[in-house]
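P.,

For your records, the input lines for the assembly:
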Amino acid sequence: MIDTNFYERRAPITLARICELLAIDIPERCDPGFVIQDIGRLDQATDSDITFFHNAKYIDELSKTKAFACLISSKYSSLLPEHTHAIVVEDPYLALAILLREFYAIKTDHDRSRPYISEKASVSGSAVIGDGCYISDFVSIGKDVIIKNGSFIGPNCSILRGVEIGKNAHIEPNVTISFAKIGDNAYIKAGARIGQQGFGFQIGRNGLVDVLQIGRVLIGNNVQIGANCTIDRGSMDDTIIGNNVRIDDMVHIAHNVAIGDYCVIAAQTGIAGSTTLGKGCMLGGQVGIVGHVIIGDRVSIAAQSGVMQNVENGKRIAGSPAMNAFSWQRLNVIFRKLDGGTSITG
Amino acid sequence: MIDTNFYERRAPITLARICELLAIDIPERCDPGFVIQDIGRLDQATDSDITFFHNAKYIDELSKTKAFACLISSKYSSLLPEHTHAIVVEDPYLALAILLREFYAIKTDHDRSRPYISEKASVSGSAVIGDGCYISDFVSIGKDVIIKNGSFIGPNCSILRGVEIGKNAHIEPNVTISFAKIGDNAYIKAGARIGQQGFGFQIGRNGLVDVLQIGRVLIGNNVQIGANCTIDRGSMDDTIIGNNVRIDDMVHIAHNVAIGDYCVIAAQTGIAGSTTLGKGCMLGGQVGIVGHVIIGDRVSIAAQSGVMQNVENGKRIAGSPAMNAFSWQRLNVIFRKLDGGTSITG
Amino acid sequence: MIDTNFYERRAPITLARICELLAIDIPERCDPGFVIQDIGRLDQATDSDITFFHNAKYIDELSKTKAFACLISSKYSSLLPEHTHAIVVEDPYLALAILLREFYAIKTDHDRSRPYISEKASVSGSAVIGDGCYISDFVSIGKDVIIKNGSFIGPNCSILRGVEIGKNAHIEPNVTISFAKIGDNAYIKAGARIGQQGFGFQIGRNGLVDVLQIGRVLIGNNVQIGANCTIDRGSMDDTIIGNNVRIDDMVHIAHNVAIGDYCVIAAQTGIAGSTTLGKGCMLGGQVGIVGHVIIGDRVSIAAQSGVMQNVENGKRIAGSPAMNAFSWQRLNVIFRKLDGGTSITG
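Structure tokens returned:
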């Protein structure tokens, strides 16, 4: 199942250790010392493996699995064959996420016990590179840059003057970072652009006058930023990304935007200048939000919505222009009947 | 017409050779040995050149052309002036495409008769680079990478550990490829990101738990991928792109998506995780498709559509949320009359 | 206020010099020789600083400012406290833009009095690099490239064969430029892709036939191009960007598009092949325009619009498919009442 060009299997794990990782009791009639060899899908797992069931779509495969054990919610556990032990958990997919990284690892050249700076990188004499960092080929690191312990910088990254990157960052290849301070455990995917000049100008009598952008990008801890994202720096204030934020590929964050902790933003969404998102918002893909609006906490915005005004805490919105998601669903049903109810799928 | 900084004209071609290339008979009253010097627009071609007519918009220029010959469909051939020979073909634009590459070539430093690896590249000792490959400046090639014969890798590309690239690939500059196996004749445009970690995590009691992504990106033969695209690798299974697929710039393909052979996907479209496209689908620009749906073969999806459910073979859909394209057109006409029919263009 | 890792404060400026820069008279009862130390927000400026008021949102802070002077329109000047001199200007934000760059500068290693080519760059022997250029690490510059005086090329840029870049360009890191001629004062942000092969092919009996793209990208003077944009080169003609155009991040410009002078295009917009924009158009974010249409001068297109036909000079359009913006607004009001007027924000 695994491609050993890219990944390696780690050592097998006892059932006791698995239960410990999942913070659950060892199931009845199970040998805690039984060694689980691998983790695999219902149709792939063998009688020394653990499998998982987190999607009702695969319910027909439950009875056929050969697995020794299965991560499953209590609701479905009775459907397992007799030879498969139910490892009952609240959220089987979460349990899978926890176990996957015990069974597998990505092959990497990064040995955190010692620092490595490629001879083909260019590191300014005034930059400070922490212990156990890995600086790949053709990385350019400017004056006064600080990269803290254990961080990995992939090939062809440009880290410009004065940038600070926290501990244990993983920066994929071909990334640009400038005018930014980034917390610990950042995961920044290939081709992301952080800190470039924002889209700021004013129209004067003699043409366009550019507004010098003198702010920064400030990114909290445990943030992930998708491939080919663009996060512009602030103009006079800063562009701010909170802690534990997840941003998918090709998301655009304009200057002076502030994103609260635990926001999740799907691919190709764009947020215009000076807009604020509260904590824990969930944005679908291809959403657009105009500038200078305030989105509250825990707001849910459906894919392809166009948000043009402030939104209160906890609201679910959809549509372009965006409205209450339930109104939008109702109006769409009505819209589809405007031609007299002709089948729309015919 | 041609800028010789970038392109070169190749040798003139006889009419006989042109007809051979187009797999048609030599027209009556034509000298098969006549040497065609160049190919140009109706208003540019001289009496030793060939021209083409593929767009009715230019019908007024037909009678004025000075060209020796014209690629044209039978429907319009009688409109040519007497001095211009009609080269009647079914699809004049296709004929143009075939002839253009006989008359012109892109200037390149790539000599396929011998391999070239820039001294300013970095190639792992365990990588295998085929005959006639061209590895440009500041290319980083990781451990165990395989690049087959005749492939070109542009400057500042990062090809990470274990990647395999087939024969005669053309990889434009500043591309990132990781965790991927790519077939023959790939054309990957500048800044494309292939194989980065997908957007996978689960929300646990103590915050977000990332799902280790242990799949790959598998790309077939004769595939083109646009500039600044993002194609994430699979989580447990693979992300799959079939043969002869054409993907325009800035398209996002999420983890575990599968795209069938001969699909054509226009710019800025996004396809969410685990969705499947059949063969020969045509997607307009800025389309969004949600995750976990199945799109059949030969489905046509209009630009800016938002697809939220499975679609059967051969359907044409449009709108957001997407519906049958004909229903959508009818409903739009009705929608535009809801204000009593006030002119919408006034 | 300013982060001295990235920016530096320039010398203080007399009030007389400020008025000269703004082309206004020195206000009554003001000492022209008074030295202004800094420029800051209403709540930050001290009694030797100048502040600004350009957004009614901050009206409550006006009376509380400690600033020595304030850039303000005549309408609001009476609201300033007695100790703050009103510097009355027509457009306070424009005045701010003009003064900001007198008070601050971005820290840079680029000394325009002498050229600098990193030892870790790769510059073809036939390339011509002007006086006072700065060529960063890992820049690859191909044969016959011309870069005129005073231009800056950031790290990891790929400038391919035959490209011409005018005076005083600022090219941020990780940019790709090929098959292009670019005017003076270009500002091209990180990861932009200019000149790659367009999305051109024709479907033949035996599969797809690619159309050789033998055009260029021609860019005028004073143009800004956003991060991760994609501007494809022309197929037989050129892709053209006029003078003084401003393009935000992640905008896609397909082959043979022509953009008139002074157009402003917000983020994530896409323009399909062979479409023409007149002068002075304003496009919101996430707009899509189909190929082969003609948009007039001074056309305004709302965010997320989908434009499917020609548009006359001076029109304001919105919606997908796009229509007159006023019709669209009216129709949206009607649409939202189709369910009987249930609150859409509830």
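Two observations worth noting. The domain at 175-331 of chain C is CATH 2.160.10.10 (UDP N-Acetylglucosamine Acyltransferase; domain 1). Chain C has a mean pLDDT of 94.

Regards
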